[in-house]
Every structure is written in structure tokens, then in C-alpha cells.
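PROTEIN DESIGN WORKSHEET
SECTION A - STRUCTURE
LENGTH: 171
C-ALPHA CELLS:
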């Protein structure tokens, strides 16, 4: 594992600390541990997502209703998961992922899943898929309707005859 914070190899414990007690504290501990012990594919993708490089802010190891997403854009409700071998070799893990994704979809969150191998072999392809989803979920920035609120409310075109039509309709 590579830690971007420690700039070198890290020997992590077998699993992140997640003790009983107050659930939120345990979740925060787990998030911190995951941030400090990111696998290389997550580090590679994080270098492309951080600091608004795609025009939106992503957070890493972000908790949403008890689920920790690898990356999350709260503004557009896009979650990104980087799956290691355990996710595609283990039926139980795949089942848990499907249940989790379904719960998050109900909250309006779009989950994009990529394999570690995808990020390592084709990072540009992964970024293109993320950019496509950002474009789909970004509200269009069409120019404001000319002619003011009154004309817009009537659905009249913005021209001089609009005032005449408005007076005619109000008679």
C-alpha cells in the first residue's frame, strides 16, 4: 500500500480500526485509517480528482449514511468506488455492493464502479467516464432569457411587439 500522506510504503494492520461504542466515532476512525492507507489505484485516481481538477469538488473516503465511499462529489451526488480483487472474486462482496448501491441510488447518488486494473491500465478511460457523468449531472448554463420577468411569465418573445401583445392580452 502507498500512503500519499507519508510518501512511502506503509505496513497497515489487517483491517481498519472500527470498534464498538459510538458508531459515528468508529466511522470517523475508519475514514481516517482509509485515507492514510489508500491502495495505489485510489492514490492514482485521487491525484486526478483532487483540487477541483474536473470542475467539481470530490472528497475521499466520505461517509454517506454509514457507507464509506472511496470518492464522493456532494454537489452532484456522484460516488466512485474502486474495487479490488475481493469485489469481483467474492460473490458475497458483490452482493453487498449491489445492496449498498441500491440504497445509495434511492438517495439520488450515482455510483460509478471501476476495477483496480482499470485505474492502473487505463486511467484516462476512467477519467472520461467520470467526466461524462459530471456533464450529465451538471445543470446546463443556458443564457438568461432576455426581456425581463414580465415577458418571461407570459412566454412572450423579447421584442417591442411583446409589450403590445401583453397590453392586448390584459384587456
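SECTION B - SEQUENCE
RESIDUE ASSIGNMENT:
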Amino acid at each position: 500500500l502507498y500512503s500519499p500522506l507519508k510518501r512511502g510504503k506503509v505496513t497497515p494492520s489487517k483491517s481498519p480500526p472500527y470498534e464498538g461504542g459510538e458508531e459515528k466515532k468508529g466511522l470517523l476512525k475508519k475514514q481516517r485509517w482509509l485515507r492514510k492507507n489508500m491502495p495505489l489505484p485510489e492514490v492514482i485516481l485521487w491525484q486526478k480528482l483532487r483540487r477541483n481538477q474536473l470542475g467539481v469538488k470530490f472528497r475521499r473516503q466520505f461517509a454517506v449514511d454509514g457507507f464509506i465511499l472511496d470518492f464522493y462529489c456532494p454537489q452532484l451526488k456522484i460516488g466512485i468506488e474502486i474495487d479490488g480483487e475481493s469485489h469481483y472474486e467474492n460473490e458475497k462482496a458483490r452482493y453487498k455492493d449491489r445492496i449498498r448501491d441500491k440504497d445509495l441510488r434511492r438517495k439520488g447518488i450515482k455510483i460509478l464502479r471501476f476495477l483496480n486494473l482499470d485505474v492502473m491500465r487505463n486511467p484516462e478511460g476512467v477519467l472520461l467516464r467520470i467526466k461524462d457523468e459530471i456533464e450529465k449531472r451538471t445543470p446546463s448554463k443556458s443564457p438568461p432569457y432576455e426581456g425581463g420577468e414580465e415577458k418571461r411569465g407570459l412566454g412572450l418573445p423579447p421584442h417591442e411587439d411583446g409589450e403590445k401583445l401583453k397590453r392586448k392580452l390584459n384587456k
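SECTION C - NOTES
The helical segments are 23-36, 40-49, 85-89, 91-106, 116-121, 123-137, 148-154, 160-170.
Confidence is low (pLDDT under 50) at residues 1-15, 17-21, 149-157.
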